[in-house]
Amino acid sequence: MSTRLPPGPAASSWAQTWRYWKSPAEFVRRCHGEFGDRFTVRVWPFGTIVFLAGHDDVKTLVRSDASVFQAGRSNSFAEMVLGRRSVFVIDDDEHARTRALMMPAFHGKAVRDQVELMREITAANLATWQVGEPVRALPHMQAISLEVISRNVMGLDDPERKERVQTAVLRLLRTGSAFDLLPGYDRFPRLHPARLRRKRPRDRADALLREQIAAHRSDPRLDERTDVLAMLLRASDAEGGWMSDQSICDQLITLLLAGHETTATGLAWCLERLVRHPEVLAKAQQAADEDDHTYLDAVIKEALRARVVVPEVGRKLSREAEFAGYRMPAGTNLWPSIELLHSSTDGFPDPEDFRPDRFLQRGALADWVPFGIGNRRCLGATFAQVESRVVLREMLRRFEFEVTDAPAESAVPRHVTRVPGDFATVTVRRLRSAA
Ligand code: HEM
């Protein structure tokens, strides 16, 4: 058993840090070209990161002991926004229990019950688009997905409370600053400057969410409600109120932040790709008219493959452990690269092509992992795919888009996602009769 880590750049960690932050995607691609599917880099403030781009390594990681290869620990940077009990930052039994309680709200039938509301929200937004003028699709997609999360997930029907909650949670998200990068959060979380800066916005968001929880509890129609908050309250009450109100606040903030920008970005990329691929656009339009879910789903999957929303996921070693023939010290980060997996020619022949048909063929595409892997795979994956299908279908039925031979939009980092550099600018050529 080797005690060394996989190979990687010989440059100092300062030089690597500089190159990484200058352009993370380019740095990772270069290292992959030079060192292959498994390489080690040293980047402040993360420390040692072993990138994984090989199918077998990712499979091994999925089967590894989750109490050693910890995702919550790797995601701990998000704790100051999401809260200590967020499903995203916890590990072990607490994670398994919280996830099990939340899961039923995100299963197929529960999500299908949400479709009509998603459609109404989409239609209201699309009604504001102007024909013949360039539209930045990304902010529209964000508005739609924020509304969907607020209504379908948080059950915020009251327009005034909805707006106050949205403002408070988005303010909390935007309270980021250079303080976030200061070390010491793991040792002194309560005294860390980044935490102190967020205390007031977080308290404000909590107070509003507690109001919303209380309003739901006293709703005589709680049993009939289909929103995720109602399902969480029912599930927790059935288990003797196992989840505290504070924990429920943490999950609601997590769902809003994890669910809205990601879905919006995926949809924006989908449009950006479609207007540059007229044949695919024509087929997608026909699929929308005929309500052919299979082809629309394939378009969405291919967009999520070709333009990753989240470039990688993280696991951090809670103790020294063996992996892929290496003995890795405690604290090592393992980052399966979604971006590299999605551009592998083994998994996806001609990966540069935008070809939804690859998702129509039989057989699972094991390297397709836009929603992450294993016991931490995105809780909202079905929700996101159904919402994307509803929004895409509505857009294609309502609008005929101008196709373009403009160069592809660049991918620009934003929070944990990569968004289209021109906000997925498209032009509606005309309204269609199917609208
Ligand atoms: C296209 C849209 C989306 C993408 C690309 C996406 C991607 C991801 C990824 C990569 C992870 C990390 C998985 C891992 O560590 O292996 C994740 C986790 C998560 N996502 Fe999503 N997501 C999307 C939409 C949503 C939506 C709509 C929701 C909820 C409404 C959601 C809720 C969550 C939660 C709660 C987790 C944490 C799961 C856990 O740690 O057990 N996501 N997502």
From TrEMBL:
PANTHER family on file: CYTOCHROME P450, CYTOCHROME P450 12A4, MITOCHONDRIAL-RELATED
Gene3D superfamilies, A to Z: Cytochrome P450
Organism: Saccharopolyspora terrae
Binding-site list for heme: C378
Protein name: Cytochrome P450
SUPFAM superfamilies: Cytochrome P450 (SSF48264)
Tagged with keyword Mitochondrion: no
Alphabetical UniProt keywords: Heme, Iron, Metal-binding, Monooxygenase, Oxidoreductase
The keyword Heme appears for this protein: yes
Family: Belongs to the cytochrome P450 family.
InterPro entries in the cross-refs: Cyt_P450 (IPR001128), Cyt_P450_CS (IPR017972), Cyt_P450_E_grp-I (IPR002401), Cyt_P450_sf (IPR036396), Cytochrome_P450_monoxygenase (IPR050121)
Cofactor names: heme
Sample GO molecular function, one term: oxidoreductase activity, acting on paired donors, with incorporation or reduction of molecular oxygen
A Pfam entry, by short name: p450
